[in-house]
């Protein structure tokens, strides 16, 4: 059997430690895979063995009254959400399901993958990112050393905040076997106010007004007319105009009062409301980038920038061709290129030095040859390399996924 065909399947944490130590001793680079739903996210990994973590799954602790859960890193996110829903709770950071973006069935992602890739949905600007909800973990470093960090409660500590360091590392620092995280009560009621016919500049102004209001909005997004027509939600699809969405969540009476106030606030606009089921469907579409899934061969970018810069950036992207929509009140721009080419230079130039752009979907060859992650300043890049040296000096974990090695 050739080295490229080797698949290691640890059964538990002890097995995982042994597998990493053996790989280190043999100089064998590992592609770390949880449930394989995000293998096409980031640069192609240069490996000669796969470390399959699928057996490290299952909820090992859930205390609803303490708002805490612990699970194996490869536990399906769908299973986490099911158990939380039974107790009227949720993951406040709304991790997206990116499987369909890469041609896979929905529901295949893992809880460990959500944290390691720091994936957050539309509630990000209010509830924080995934990294803000990770309390602790157990892992094995690229040095072949088992370690743990954090705990079951949020507390002040000295030294490195390892849970936050792990989030967004894409499996290049350590292999997580278990994660402990915060959960929160799910909203009793969800309502979405829709404003029709705004351009990007007017939409960003309206979203800024809503965000600055006392009405505690939890979602702010804008779809141009062509993408609104592709929605599975009838009131959005049938509008034939752009749609700017403002979400309000919480206890029933509070939601009704806040929504009524927002309707008065934006009474000069053409308005409509989405109630609970339609609201959840609409924000799930935005969370999972459903408006831009097809055509599947188009390159897809995720740009983050100051919200008030969004109209200028959208105008620059429209000159390149393609489609985009806004989330996080304009702080997040999803952009699908007109053609299959990734167009890294023009896309990053559209930012004008304000923000970051990450290539989310492209062919393997393009991801191999492009800077998938936004270029870093030399000092930041050097700091990142030093951290990598501390955790994985031999570069055996997800080699090349973020930067060429």
Describe the fold and architecture.
- This protein has 405 residues and is α+β, with helices and mostly antiparallel strands.
- The protein has 4 domains: 3-54, no CATH class; 59-185, Uridine Diphospho-n-acetylenolpyruvylglucosamine Reductase, domain 3 (2-Layer Sandwich); 189-212 and 220-287, 2-Layer Sandwich (Alpha-Beta Plaits); 292-369, Alpha-Beta Plaits (2-Layer Sandwich), CATH 3.30.70.100.
- Helix content is 31%, strand content 23%.
- The protein has helices spanning 13-26, 77-86, 111-116, 124-127, 162-166, 200-212, 225-228, 234-237, 252-265, 276-287, 310-320, 344-351, 364-369, 378-391; strands at residues 6-8, 30-33, 49-52, 59-63, 68-72, 89-90, 134-141, 146-150, 174-182, 184-185, 189-196, 217-223, 243-250, 271-274, 300-304, 323-327, 332-336, 356-361.
- The strands form 5 sheets. The chain has a 5-stranded antiparallel β-sheet with strand order 4-5-9-7-8. The chain has a 4-stranded antiparallel β-sheet with strand order 12-13-11-14. A 4-stranded antiparallel β-sheet has the order 16-17-15-18, covered by helices on one side.
- Strand 16 (323-327) and strand 17 form a beta hairpin.
- Helix 11 (310-320) packs antiparallel against helix 12.
- The chain starts with 5 loop residues before the first strand and ends in a 14-residue tail after the last helix.
- The relative contact order is 0.13.
- The model is unreliable at 154-158 (pLDDT under 50).
